[in-house]
Specification:
By secondary structure, the chain is α/β, with parallel strands linked by helices. The chain has a domain at 55-355: TIM Barrel (Alpha-Beta Barrel). The chain has helices at residues 74-83, 102-115, 159-167, 180-189, 198-202, 205-222, 234-242, 254-258, 263-267, 280-291, 307-310, 325-334, 340-355; strands at residues 2-12, 18-26, 29-34, 41-46, 51-54, 56-61, 86-91, 119-122, 124-125, 143-146, 173-176, 226-228, 248-252, 297-298, 371-375, 380-381, 400-401, 404-410, 413-416. The strands form four sheets. Strands 1, 2, 3, 4, 5, 15, 18 and 19 form an eight-stranded mixed β-sheet that branches. Helix 3 links the parallel strand 10 (143-146) and strand 11 (173-176). Helix 6 (205-222) packs parallel to helix 7 and helix 7 (234-242) packs parallel to helix 10. The chain is globular. The N and C termini lie far apart (45 Å).
Length: 438
């Protein structure tokens, strides 16, 4: 008997073609896809012709556990992710304590096993003093390097330390690319300003470009796999278009695709993040880079803070995002801005490939049964009050979106049924295929 049978859905194949039919899952995997499946199942769902996609993969989240669980924890963050159609996440190391030792990594894995309703993986954080152990900590999806200070205390800004990290080992390095000296220089220039828009002046495009340039230089020197997180500027796009080796990947986040400096006027400190939101021209450059493959996929950089915290000064950097990323991109697909094939790459397949996530990123027989069923015909307005994240707000409050998930499946079990998170469902630790350097 199958564990789960979904009937009468429009199934999006890995090549973005759509077939109408049924999909049957057993032992956590997709076992059969056919025009009609007449078989018993532990649960049968009637899809009513809705679109079935691979579960979205979010390769950059900050779920704040341990240390800041009042903002989010692995349980609440994963529930919000499931509501947004995300079935796997990769979480960053800037928690308290930071994930810079095997013991800290083991602790996070144990916490996720107890609380996460979707699949999970974790970065380890690089410091100037743990270079010799970065390759040994396992399982981990990659090494996170903060070239510029952000939330937490994991700054690595000296060139000699960066050289050692890039020269040692084979694991993928993901960089927060902002130059710290550049930031400090501009912070001094704008020290008398307390308006939210000053954040974009304190961390201008120049600082991002300097760090991205250095990361590329080191990646090429040591032929080290590199991922550039949350690219935010047209200058970085131009650099990557000229000079992006095949072992380098890069991402955009919805905040930099859809928000710009004009949003400070309406939202104030809510939209402060690192790197900061930019200008309309940067929005357009990022979209063009996604469409022509200069940028490889989309992450959310889900980084929640309470609205009370956001009202202080300096306001903390970061915004929630796991519940709205897939509807935002599907809304753009319905508007004709991108193709369905691009949606599949940006939201699932390319992140699975970059991080070597075994069994993830495609709706195909033999792949893991991580799925999301979406309603692409019904438009609903995103509202703060509807969010499942602990902080209960979204920078896209008031935006009309389509493609909201009505069913999220993890390892062949329904975790979100369109109304609530099912009790008792737990995600699994992600598995990583060995990947060579460049």
């Amino acid at each position: 008997m199958f564990t789960l049978l979904i009937r009468n859905c429009r199934i999006v194949q890995p090549d973005a073609s759509i077939i109408e039919g049924d999909i049957a899952c057993r032992d956590g995997r997709i076992e059969r896809i056919a025009p009609a499946i007449d078989a018993a199942a532990g649960e049968t769902v009637e899809a009513q012709g809705r679109l079935l996609l691979p579960g979205a993969i979010d390769p950059q989240v900050h779920f704040r556990e341990p240390g800041h669980e009042h903002k989010e924890d692995l349980a609440s963050g994963s529930r919000a992710a499931a509501r947004g159609g995300i079935t796997s996440f990769l979480e960053m190391p800037n928690t308290m304590p930071p994930t810079i030792t095997q013991a800290a990594l083991d602790d996070k894995l144990a916490r996720a096993a107890r609380g996460s309703v979707v699949n999970y993986g974790f970065f380890v954080g690089a410091t100037a003093t743990n270079v010799d152990t970065l390759e040994q900590m396992a399982p981990a999806c990659g090494i996170k390097v903060f070239m510029g200070a952000s939330t937490g205390d994991l700054l690595v800004d000296r060139r000699e330390d960066l050289e050692r990290i890039f020269a040692t080992g084979h694991r993928l390095i993901a960089v927060h690319a902002e130059d710290q000296a550049c930031i400090e220089q501009h912070r001094a220039l704008f020290a008398d300003r307390r308006d939210p828009a000053s954040h974009s002046d304190i961390r201008p495009a120049e600082c991002a470009l300097k760090a991205t340039t250095l990361a590329l230089e080191l990646s090429k020197r040591y032929r080290r796999r590199l991922h550039i997180l949350h690219v935010s500027t047209k200058e970085e796009v131009a650099l990557l278009r000229r000079d992006k080796p095949p072992w380098v990947t890069a991402e955009a986040v919805p905040n930099h695709l859809f928000l710009n400096r004009s949003d400070y006027e309406r939202q104030g400190a809510r939209v402060i993040m690192n790197p900061p939101i930019r200008d309309h021209e940067d929005n357009e450059a990022l979209w063009a880079a996604l469409q022509d493959g200069v940028l490889d996929f989309i992450a959310t950089d889900h980084a929640p803070h309470t609205l009370e915290e956001k009202q202080g000064w300096p306001a903390p950097s970061g915004m929630p995002g796991v519940e709205t990323s897939l509807p935002l991109i599907l809304t753009e697909w319905r508007a004709g801005r991108c193709t369905l094939a691009q949606v599949l790459r940006w939201m699932s397949a390319s992140a699975a490939d970059a991080y070597g996530l075994i069994g993830k990123g495609r709706v195909a027989e033999g792949f893991d049964a991580d799925l999301t069923l979406v309603d692409i015909d019904h438009i609903r307005v995103a509202r703060d009050a509807d969010m499942m994240t602990k902080v209960r707000w979204t920078p896209f409050d008031g935006r009309a979106l389509t493609g909201w998930p009505v069913l999220t499946v993890v390892a062949g079990r329904v975790v979100f049924d369109g109304e609530q998170i099912r009790p008792g469902v737990r995600g699994l630790p992600l598995r990583y295929a060995p990947r060579p350097n460049g």
